[in-house]
Write a structure and sequence with these properties.
The complex is a heterodimer of chains A (242) and B (495).
Chain A: H1 3-30, H2 52-61, H3 128-136, H4 143-152, E1 179-183, H5 184-187, E2 201-205, H6 207-217
Antiparallel strand pairs in A: 1-2
Helix pairs in contact in A: 2-6, 3-4, 4-6
Chain B: H1 7-53, H2 68-98, H3 105-127, H4 144-163, H5 172-197, H6 202-237, H7 244-257, H8 274-285, H9 287-300, H10 305-310, H11 312-334, H12 337-343, H13 347-377, H14 384-417, H15 423-429, H16 431-459
The chains are: A mainly alpha (242), B mainly alpha (495).
């Protein structure tokens, strides 16, 4: 093989995938327009509240994506849509509409890198914010408080869904670096319902903790308030084993 | 061998010896510092694996929280150990194959120190919570360009050596080395640009990162390992490669498939649909180059099984190649769409990653190191027992990790697809496999502590002054590495 043949071969075998799998898709996805809903010109543009981009950064820094995924795959690629409330809320007396849907490209706006996730040692978090807020509504501990308590000690807090105490089952790490321990007078309203390591101290979230929890509560990738056009909806029949 | 050496033989020996001498410091530095990062990476891997089934383990130290420690573990293993071992191998192999001394070893040595400094800053940043959160590109975004610059400082000289080689036949190892040298800066530069530097859709940033992760192994570490295998197998057995045409076919098959792989990790994500399917297809077909290379190397050493058992370099290299065939078979089975549906978000991906980084690349790298180090230091390895422990512990541990991770992942995946099983039950069922992985990491730690110690002793030139090689069997009359006293007694003994 001559050097010239080698170089031509390399250009072909590497250059073509580089162009067609990296450069062109990247350029196309940059200009992704929100899809039009109807003839009147409405656009499907579900907004997200809270501090998403900063919180997303903390999510990545803490390595949450190692154990949690954030994608509800279409039914040809997996049954995520039908697993519990990963894809949204199911119809129930408190919640008349079934708000489940598969992930859309617009779901990751304002984030630098989509945290698709590596493994599911913990549940999928695409609709974590939706689930926590729905189930903690009207309870003693607010949704935000629940998430803080979970991050501080995952094995010391009751499940948001049915008040079942989660014993040692959760393998989520205690992320103490997202919290500070300050004297009670400094903590004020921010103090969490936790025992600090010392007398007269309280546990409050620090800046990174606040950003992360704001981000987690913004994770609502379902159709509540933003109905999907009919021909976008996925197959609603679960496989027989359900 | 003739009774009296001809002048060309003596010239040959002197040339090889001067090439080895010129590369002694950079190559030994890469191997020694790489081995320390290997031990650190394995220790972090042990902690990371333990935290998955025993989350209270060391949870008082927030530096090594689960999540951060996983990113640090993989980064230390790939950039601290993998890249440095590869750079050492590339520098030495290219110099030997082009028969040119290295004239820039000072620059390479300085660059090697810079590489270590950058990696150290990066790993500390990850553990301090300042990483980027991107899989295998977890160093903070400002670090990557400096890594690319240092890489070029190190490898430019090998490219120059290839350019000024003597006219004549170019051996397949040189094509693999050249390809790896050209691929890595392209994939790294593209990843830096598309993931960090430019503003694009977050999903495509994740897709390019997944492509880069696959590319680091398939297009940099693997070609280096194969170049080393193609060099050592004929060298140690004294026989030519079984089929040169199959060797070229294997190379081009890898070149064709490698650049498409990686996207299958994003199956089901809302990116252009052909990407995950192309990635899955590439990983299914990777069996073809694996079989081509595997059969070629195994046929080359076919009648010399005794030799393969005695020579440390050949034993490690052969195991690495056999594991490459196994990697090809597993990749073939686990990247079909029904299998991906089940195992996409499970331990299985991790098992395949460890099989490729440790099972394939690292075992071939150990083979190369056990061959190169005596030549550049002019000392022989101190203890064949250390080498034997390193070999068997490595093999058993990596086999355990891979089996437990892949089977555990399949169980996780089955549980995920079975909607009647609650999530908690599925997580519990795969716990025991997590324990298996953790215990295996502990054995791997011991194996590589032994290796690191042995290598550091050689770095300090405390090896045996004999040039009779360290074989894994006592008292063999003929050495596979050449006759005794070859280097020390040039001109006065059989060549």
């Amino acid at each position: 093989m001559t050097f010239k043949a080698f170089i031509l071969g390399m250009l072909a075998t590497f250059g073509l995938p580089w162009l067609f799998a990296i450069v062109l898709p990247f350029a196309e996805m940059r200009g992704l327009e929100s899809p039009q809903l109807d003839e009147e010109g409405g656009y499907y543009d579900p907004g997200r509240a809270e501090r998403i981009s900063e919180g997303s950064k903390v999510y990545g820094q803490e390595g949450c994506a190692v154990c949690h995924s954030q994608v509800v795959r279409p039914t040809y690629a997996g049954w995520d849509v039908h697993r519990g409330e990963w894809a949204g809320l199911r119809a129930s007396p408190d919640q008349p509409d079934d708000t489940r849907r598969e992930t859309l490209p617009s779901d990751y706006f304002d984030e630098a890198v989509a945290h698709i996730g590596e493994a599911r040692n913990g549940p999928d978090l695409s609709n974590f914010g939706r689930r926590v807020e729905f189930y903690q509504k009207g309870k003693e501990i607010s949704a935000e408080q629940w998430v803080y308590l979970h991050l501080y000690n995952p094995r010391g807090i009751k499940n948001y869904k049915d008040d079942q105490f989660i014993p040692a089952k959760s393998t989520c790490p205690s992320k103490r670096s997202l919290f500070d321990q300050v004297p009670l007078y400094q903590a004020g309203d921010d103090a969490l319902a936790l025992e600090a390591d010392e007398e007269g101290f309280a546990v409050i979230p620090n800046d990174r903790g606040r950003r992360l929890v704001g981000y987690l509560l913004s994770l609502k990738k379902d159709t509540l308030g933003q109905p999907l056009p009919k021909d976008w909806t996925f197959t609603r029949e679960a496989p027989k084993a359900e | 061998m003739s009774e009296t050496p001809s002048t060309t033989d003596i010239h040959d020996i002197e040339l090889r010896s001067s090439i080895d001498r010129s590369l002694r410091h950079p190559v030994m530095f890469f191997f020694a510092s790489g081995s320390v990062w290997l031990v650190l990476g394995i220790l972090l891997g042990f902690i990371a694996s333990a935290k998955k089934h025993a989350p209270e383990f060391l949870d008082c130290i927030s530096w090594i929280d689960a999540g951060k420690v996983d990113a640090a573990h993989l980064s230390a293993l790939v950039y601290g150990w993998g890249c440095q071992a590869a750079l050492g191998m590339i520098s030495w192999l290219m110099a030997r194959l082009t028969r040119k001394e290295c004239t820039a070893s000072g620059i390479i040595l300085v660059a090697g120190h810079l590489w270590n400094l950058i990696i150290m800053v990066g790993i500390v940043a990850i553990l301090a919570g300042q990483g980027s959160g991107v899989t295998l590109m977890a160093f903070p975004s400002y670090i990557w360009v400096s890594l690319l610059v240092v890489y070029l400082m190190i490898t430019l000289w090998s490219l120059v050596q290839f350019q000024v080689r003597d006219a004549g036949h170019v051996y397949v190892s040189q094509w693999y080395l050249l390809a790896g040298l050209l691929w890595f800066p392209w994939i790294l530069g593209s990843a830096i640009f598309f993931v960090f530097a430019s503003e694009g859709h977050p999903l495509m940033a994740a897709a390019v990162a997944a492509w880069f992760k696959s590319g680091v192994f398939l297009l940099f570490l693997l070609p280096t390992a194969l170049a080393s295998a193609y060099y050592l197998a004929p060298k140690v057995t004294g026989r030519p490669v079984y089929s040169y045409n199959v060797a070229l076919f294997g190379f081009w098959a890898l070149a064709l498939l490698g650049p498409w792989a990686g996207f299958q990790r994003l199956m089901g994500a809302p990116i252009p649909q052909f990407l995950p399917y192309a990635g899955a297809a590439a990983m299914v077909l990777i069996l073809i180059p694996a079989l081509a290379v595997g059969l070629n190397i195994l046929k080359t050493i076919q009648d010399q099984k005794e030799l393969a058992a005695q020579s440390p370099s050949l034993r490690f290299t052969t195991s690495g190649i056999v594991l490459f065939i196994i990697f090809g078979v597993l990749s073939f089975g686990l990247n079909t769409v029904p299998a991906i549906k089940m195992t996409q978000f499970s331990y299985t991906g991790y098992g395949l990653d460890i099989l490729s980084i440790y099972g394939v690349f690292s075992l071939c790298a150990f083979g190369a190191i056990y061959f190169i180090v005596p030549r550049v230091t002019r000392r022989e390895w101190l203890s064949s027992r250390f080498i034997t422990w390193h070999f068997f512990l490595s093999l058993y541990a990596v086999a355990s990790i891979v089996c437990c991770a892949i089977i555990g992942g399949i169980i996780q995946g089955q549980g995920m697809e079975d909607l009647s099983q609650p999530f908690g039950t599925m997580a519990e069922r795969s716990n025991s496999y997590g324990w298996g992985v953790t215990i295996a990491w502990a054995f791997l730690l011991v194996a590589n502590l032994v290796f690191c110690l042995h290598l550091l002793l050689m770095w300090a030139r405390l090896g045996r002054r004999s040039s009779h090689p360290t074989l894994l069997q006592n008292h063999h009359p003929e050495s596979p590495h050449g006759p005794e006293g070859e280097i020390d007694n040039i001109g006065s003994v059989n060549a």
